[in-house]
Amino acid sequence: MLGFFLYFRALKYSPASIIASFTFFTPFVTLIFIMLLLGEKLTALDGVAALLILLSLPVQRIGNRSLSKRRSE
């Protein structure tokens, strides 16, 4: 519930394209909570998945910038 509240609150102050990119972090945050709260150990596959999630945000932001430049030309 808190996540949805924060998501919609953020939409009030920022463009949806930026806020939507942060939804990619949901699985990563879930992994962190599983480790902290349940004491689970990450597998190598979990680590690779977390890395891909963390790298996806800069890639998407670069794509958004290039798309914005093309639209403004």
UniProtKB/TrEMBL annotation:
Species: Paenibacillus plantiphilus
Main localization of the protein described in the UniProt heading: membrane
Keywords, alphabetical: Membrane, Transmembrane, Transmembrane helix
KW Transmembrane (keyword) present: yes
The protein's name in its UniProt record: EamA domain-containing protein
Compartments reported by the entry: Endomembrane system
EamA domain span: 2-57
Membrane topology: Multi-pass membrane protein
Lineage top rank: taxon: Bacteria
